[in-house]
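quick one before i forget lol
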Amino acid sequence: ERELVESVLRQLKPEHASLLLMRHHQGLSLGEIATVLDVTTDVAKARLFRARTAFMRVYATLDGEAGEEDR
């Protein structure tokens, strides 16, 4: 699972991967992310939503491929 997540992160735009790592690996709040990016909390929230959407899209594709390899 970890390898799959790392593979997905490598395929994302760098700004999307950075946002996801700040939030889910480093545990930063939306307010802290907004400060780092020098944007409003609402902008940070919207960007994080787009990053999560992109992650899920790539993850679903790669997870399907991994499942096929197990067969």
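fyi The two ends are 17 Å apart (CA to CA).
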